[in-house]
Amino acid sequence: MIVRIMGEGQVRLDDSHLTELNKLDDELLAEMQSGDEPGFRLTLNTLLDSVRRLGAPLPDDALEPSELILPSPDATLEEVRELLSNEGLIPG
Question: What pLDDT, in 10s, does the model give residues 63-82?
Answer without folding.
Answer: 888 888 899 999 988 888 87
